[in-house]
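Re: that chain you flagged

S.,

Sorry for the slow reply, it's been a week of failed gels. I finally had a moment to sit down with the sequence you sent. For the record, here it is as I used it:
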Amino acid sequence: MLLYHGSNQIVEEPRLIEQTRGLDFGAGFYLTTDQAQAVRFSGIVVKRRKSGVATVNVYISPLKR
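Prediction finished late last night. Pasting the structure tokens below so you have them in one place:
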């Protein structure tokens, strides 16, 4: 199964870090199976942070669906 993460940078090895701000669904590294959603979110992240380039990181899950 392919999983997608929209960001403003390449994330080769995801890691959880201490968050000081509240997120919609709590702290974590958010993934989706919807590539279009990750594309949209990557643009949002670039606008919010005013840095980087819209990037969709792709990961392969060992789980089969």
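What I noticed first: Helices lie at 35-49.

Talk soon,
D.
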